[in-house]
Amino acid sequence: MTRKVGVIGQGHVGETLANNLLVTGTVDELVLVDTDEKKLNANATDFEDMAANLPTHAKVIRNDYEALADADVVVIAVGNISVQNDDAKHDRFMELNVNSVAAKEVGTKLKEVGFNGVLVSISNPCDVIAALFQRYTGLPKKQVIGTGTLLDTARLRKVVGQALDVDPRSVSGYALGEHGNSQFAAWSQVRVLGQNITDLAAVSDQLDLDALAEATKAGGYTVFHGKLYTNFGIAAAALRLVTAILNDAKIELPCSNFREEYGIYCGYPAILGKDGVEKQLQLNLTADEQKLLEKSANYIKTRFDETVKKLEE
Fold first, then answer.
1. What is the pTM of this model?
2. For residue 1, which of 58, 140, 242, 308 sits 20 to 30 Å off, Cα-Cα?
3. Which is the catalytic residue, given 12, 57, 179, 225?
4. Are 96 and 175 within one domain?
C-alpha cells in the first residue's frame, strides 16, 4: 500500500516536516502545496536532489490539490509567525486573523477534491484552527486533530528530566488544554523514577513545580526569540502523529482532539490509529486541574465561536 501524505505550507515548519518524512522513509508519495510557488519549487527541487543519497524512494508532487484526494494524511502548516515579532504578550492568537481565513479556504478546497483521510493541523492558534478545519472540511471529528499539547508535553518532560538529571523519555505525564497561554501541567499525572512528581517535590527543595510549569509554557518563545521562528520541535511532534496514523499504531498521545464535554478541541491524550482518534481517554485529574482544563477549553470555545461568526458574516 502506498503511503501518501500532503503537507500544505512550506514555511519553516512545513519544509522541516517534509524533509523529516523523506529522510526517515515514512512516505512513498509526498504532496507539497504552497501559494508561494517559487519557494515550493525550490524545496521540491532540493528534496529531489537529495533522493540519490537516501536509502528509500519517494515521489514528490508539487501544488496539486487533486493529488490530495486519496492521501492518507494531510498536514496543515500554513501560517505567518512573523506577526508575533513585536508581541510582548506571547500570544499565539496573534496568528488567528491570517490562519482562520486560510483554514476556511484550504478546508473548502480539501472538501471539494474529496479528501477523506486524517487531517493534522499544526497552525496556530492550534486548537481553534483544528476546529475550523473540521468545520470547513466536513470531516468526522475523529479524522481531524491538531498537534495540540504534544510539543508542550515534550517540553514538560524535558524540563522535569533536566531538573532530576534523567532522560526526558523516562518522564511520563501531560501538559493539557490550549497549546497556548492557558495550558497547564497536570502534575497529578506526571511520574518519574517510579514516583509521582508531587511526592518527589514534597521531599526535595530542588523541584519547583511552578517554575517547571512556566518553563514548559515559555519553551517555544525561548526558541522564537533566538531565531524568530520554531521548527524542529513542532515538526518532530507532527512526524510522530503522522507515523502513528500511517502505522495504525493505536498509541496514546496528547494532541488537540474534540472533547464532547466542552464542545471544542483541546490538548488531551487519545489513542491514535489509521482513522485518527480511535479512542478518547478520561484522566483522573484533581479538582483544581479539572477547573483549569475547563477554563482553558472554554477560552478556546469562545475564540472559536467568535472566529466562525466573523468568517461567515
1. 0.94
2. 140
3. 179
4. no
